Structure formats: structure tokens, C-alpha cells
Amino acid sequence: MKRKPLSHCMLIAFLGSYLPSTQAFVPSVSLGAITPGDSHAAITKDAVQLVYDDLGLRNVTKSMKKARQTILDANASVDDDFPAHTARHCDAENLSGCNLVILAELRDVVTHTQGDNVEAAREALGRALHTLQDFYSHSNWIELGNRGVHPEIGKSEFVSNVAPAGANTCIEAPAGQSCFKGNLTTSMLTSGYYSGQDRTRPAGKCRHGGFFDKSPGFGGINKDMSVCTGTVAAGLFDSPHHDHHPQAADLAVLATYQVFKDVKAKLSDREFKNLLGVGPTLAFSIDTTGSMGSVIAGVRATSTNIVNSRLGTDQEPSKYVLTPFNDPFSGPTTVTSDGSAFKSALGALYADDGGDCPELAMTGVFGALSASDDGGELYLFTDASAKDAGLAGSVLSLATKKKTKLFFSLFGSCSPYDPAYFYLAENTGGQVFILNQSEASSIAEFSDLISRSDTVDILSIGDALSASPKNYVFPVDTQTTRLTISVSATEAHSVRIIRPDGSVVSETDGGVTRVPVSAASIYSIERPQVGEWTITVEGAGTFSILVNGQSKLSLDEFRFVQTRGRPGHQGAFPVTGLPAPGQTVDALADFTETAKNVVFEFRSRSGKVLQSFTLTNNAPAEATVQTGKVVVPSSRFFVYALGEDGNGAKFQRLLSSGFIPQEVSVVAPTAVNLPVGQTTSYMFKVQNDGPADSFKFTALDDRPYLTSVTPSVASLATGASTIVKVDLTPPTTTSVGTIDTLTFSAESVTRNDVRNFAVLSSQVIAPPAVGDVNRDGRVDCDDLGLVKASFGKRAGQPAFNPTVDIDINGIVDARDLAQVARQVPVGTICN
Asked: Where is the Hemicentin/VWA7 galactose-binding domain (predicted)?
């Protein structure tokens, strides 16, 4: 039954019983120690659940979880990407700036959602929510006796009753009494000053407080933790006004929930559900050369049927993506949430010219991949090899970042066995199908089975056949309502699928559907038996197996993580790119709450178990999140999770994208906005921790903004590093708000599979005034403060801020400070 909307008072009362008893305004769970309460992530999840309840969404599907995770990641990133920005954290009485940041981000949420760029909309929403949530912990709103959300923050252009610059707001806490509660002296709205930010604390103003606040004095007013003092993995902490923490967390949830309601009021029902990820993504990249006419017709017919059959159901895609390619062109990419518009785009495709080989297949895949949501599938149809196969590394980097499986349907005799296709399919958990052109409509049916909002991966194998048959066993649990089993091979083969009761699956069995293609065995099995299933494969050549199901029980996330964030506000952040072999690292998994006795395994592509391990929960408020130390294998591996479902039946799940451990690392800069008509330089640090080698550096973006990569190659000794500059220049005709996805890769010239990467998304903005480094439309002390906060830092260092490196020389120095200082209005006095 749909939950009745709650009144303001009812919701406050509800939250008091709904929320955990301890809270903490850190970005995410801490590593290696129990976090004293909720994180920003937990607060956001609580609010999102209220939104799901309002919409009657009882089943949180895979696509909804991926959408939510994008919001959570963007929320957490504020502590990592903007540590010195007082406006981003509602610190230092910059409450007007804080409010303007929230309003600007929320405008972008609506604009991007209406423009079918929901990934950018979710990121903007996450950033807005972090700042909004910080207001209730960092200001004195609670101490002033308020029990409701602030009526102006995130709603009005003006914030009233803020203490003026010269007004005293706090007295110093007695020496040694860091948790002193009697320090506030004002009836006006204020917030604490934190050391190292763009505003320096004047005498008589409040400290933020906490072990990492190095500003003079003692005490503070933050409510970031639910206890006064303690220890976490990052070190000591103290939260001076911890006793007001439950109210701050309750109001943060309520304010977050209200933001979702406000955004919903500005969008159509369909647009709002797209923002939440209600429905999967359907993404195609299709070769349109002259020889592809019958293939295009077959894909068009089947895809149209898929779209029509899903309209109005919970499987209706939230996004459709279509990228045509040939030689010498690729695109334009169609991105829409409208099924009719997608069908029109398919109908407009036609085979023309060409017939030659090869084609720009990698460029086509990259374009569709850039526009796709995380955690989905992408299908390419071609009869040619890839003319731009050298871009396969960039495609794999982006697919790995987005956790997207790539499937390749190959037709004809124009070099269909391009190694790039197999390389990408194997490393993303996808498959290659070698087909006749008459089978195009049949293989398109495969996308209907795989691209659903509640699919989970159960088994993924890649191997070579020999004289003896190969057997693969996997469990099916009580939560799995349908199986899809796909076996594809390069040569003649036979497949037997055996149920737990010993019977062999036949296409004539009830509930069994076979997709009729010649070089693959693809079955859909409704209501599969619970227990151990077996797949037996015989024949010659190489083959791949993919087993997935429809289920509510899923491995939602598995990441290698590290502690990052501004001091005192640290959490678990994803490691950039791929981890190093043999390295002991932290892992984070988020599993369905009904999973029990979970054991994780690293397995090879052939299914061999390389390592078994367990993880533990250190965040009571996030009961499904588990963390722990693991040792990275020395070769490519896939992550499996095994355990029992709520009924005690054995289950198996996996993360379909594989990991290739790397001895080369990439440190990416913080993503910044791209001014129209101006060049923005990104500095990537590449370090070689393996044997001496030569590396090539490539960059690829989905817009025509990339202008240079310098250097393009470098020789690096063991332990050596270099800085690579990538320049992006949006043309003067570019629309403000356009999102550009840049993938940077460092690849060994001599060794295959030695590569690492970073992916950055940037938004195009109107050209700011010189010196306006925080992009708020004016040059003032806050801009000067940002330069000071990053002063002396070089590209590749965590505190380096590329927006304040005015002369783009890779270091924030006196020249940058002077350029900004000259733009500050005459007579302005900055602390």
C-alpha cells in the first residue's frame, strides 16, 4: 500500500523513530573502525527511501540503486573536491554563498533532467544535498531552538538574520574543554570557521571545532558526530555540540526529502522517475555502411517491438541511446527518455555508401557509452573490423568506470574477428556473437532479456575448449524468478544445461524460450528450480558463458577504496583506475540486506578461485555496507559473492566487469567547469611502479573539445612519474550546461594489458571574470582564500586546485595569487 504523505509535524515524529540513534556528518563509512553514526550517504538513503515510499516503489531495482549511488558519490565528493570552499559546507558564516550554491545546483538538476542528461543531474543533486545537509550540522540553526527545516535555504535567493561581519557570535571555550557547549552568544544565524578554508576566522566568531580544526582557540559548534570525542581510522575527532546531533540529522533527512519533492514539482512524472533510475537503459551502436541494410532492418523491427512491449511497465527504459557510425563519421548520438523518439531515430537510420572495411566502431561505442547510465549494457552491430582499434583502451577505461557490459554482434566476412571486440567483451563481462545477417532480429531479442532493471549476474566464464567437455556449476536461489543463459563460441560446439533434478533443458519445455541464432545457445528459463545447475560445453575454439537472472537479491557495489576527504570529514572514496598487484587495499561491498553468511571470491576468467575472503560491517547505520582488507591478485580477476538468501538457499552473484591489476597509476585532478571559448588544462600525474617502460598517453572525449595531450609518450623508470597536460576548448558556439566526458589513459608501449585511466565529467559555463576562481560571479576575498588554501601545491598532489593555477604551470604560486589579488576591488580588506 502506498504510504500516505506525511505532514511536516508527522514526518518529524516519524523520523525520530525511523532514524538510527547515532549520526555522523562524514561523507561515507570510515575504514577500519566503527563510525559513530550516520554518514551523508546514510542520511541521503533515508530520505530517498521516503521518496520511494511516496511513489509506491517497493522494489529498489538495479537501475535505481545505480542512480542512487551516483547521487551518493557526488554528495561525498564535496568533502574531497571542495575542502576549502566555505560556501560548499555552509562554514564561516558564508550562508548566503552556501544557499546560492544549492540553488545553482538544483537549477542544473532540473535543466539536465529535462535535457535527458540524468547522470549530470544526479551529480548536481548529490552536491546540492551535501551542502544542504552540512547547514544543519555546521550552523547554529538547531541551537536557536528551531525544530523545522530552514524556510529559505535551498528555496529563496536571500537568507535572513545572518550575523554581520563585525558581530561577535561565540566566546572561547576554556582551555582543554573542546566539547564546551556554552560558547554561543548570538541570537542570529551563524556557522563555524574551519582552518585552511577560503575565509579566516576573526576574533569573536565561532570555530567549527574538532581535532582537525587548527584555527586558534578551543571548542566549536559542529554537530558532525553523535559523541563528543573518540577515535576513527583517520585519527581523533571531537564534535563539540554532539548533543544536538540527532536533531541535526533528522532535519537533514527532512530537508533532503523536501528537495526531492521540490524537484519533482518542476519535472514531469516520467522525468522524475528517470532521475531516480526507474527503468533500465537500452543502448545501441550500429554500423550504417551500405552492406548493413538487412541488419539495420532486423534490429529496428525487434527493437521497436521491445519498446512497445515495455511501455507503461516497470521495465520501460528510463533512457534510450543510439549512436550510428561508419567511416569517416560517427554520431550524432540520440539520447532520449521518449520511446517514440527512439523509434523515430531507429527509423531514420539507413545503410549508405561504404561497404569498405574497417569502420569507426570504437568511436561509435565510446559515444554511446558516454551517454549511457552506469551499470547497464551496450550492444554494437557491425560487419567490419575497427579502423580505430587503438581507442579500445579508452573505451575499456570508460566501460570499467561505468560498470557497463559490452556486447558485439558481428556479421559478414569483413574481418569479423577483430581482437578489439573480444578484448572489450571479455573485460567488461559481455560477449561476442558471430552471426548471419538474417539473425539480426533474433540477436536483438537478447537485449530484451538482458537489459532489465532487476537483472543480476550469476556466472561469467571465458575459456578455450579441448578434447574433454567442460562443466560449470552454479546455484539458483529462491529470489531468482528467471534465468538467462548465453553460451557463445567461435567454432562448432554443443551445450547441455542440467537442472538440479537432473533433467536437461529443452526449448520445448514449459517456461523455456530459445533465441534462434546459429553460433550461440541462448535460453530464457522462467521460474527456475532452486539448487545447483550445471552447464556442459563441448567442441572447439574459444567460448564465453554468461548467466544472469531477475532477482531482488543483488551485489549492489564492490569497490577498492581509500580514505580521503577534508580532515575531520573523511570517508571511503573509490581508488582512481585499477589497483596494483599484490597490494593490500581496502574493499567496500554493498549487498542486499537479505543476504546471509556472505563470502567473497576473486576468480579468474575461466572460473578458478584465486582468493576467498570476508568483509565486516563497521557502520551500524548502513547495515548492508561491508569493508575490509584484501590482497589484489597478480592477474585479471572477477569478484563473486556467495551466501544464503532469506530462505536459506545458496546464492551466487558477481560483478561482471573484471579487474586487471596495474603497476602504473594515474592521479586525476578535480573536475572543473569549462568556460566557453577558453582553454582549460587538466594535469594528470602518471607513475610507474613496475619495471622501466615507455608509455603512451591518450585522451578521448565525447565532445569535440579535446585540443592537445602533452606529452603523448614518455619513458619512466621504476618509481618515476610525469605530468601529462590535457587541453579542452569548448567552441564559442557551445551551449552553456553541456557536459563533456573525458577519458585519460596511460598504456605501456611494450606490454599488453598494462594500462590505467581516469574519467572526468565537466560542465560548460559562460566565461567567468578573471580571478573568479570559485565561479560565483564576483572576485572577492573568497577567491583569494582559495588560492591561499592551495598555495605551494603542485599538480598530482591532493590539495592542488586546478582552477586557481591561473597561469597553468602546474603549481599554485605567487603569480597566481597576484593575478587574483589584482582583481579584488580596491579597498577590500581580507583576513
From this structure: 467-552
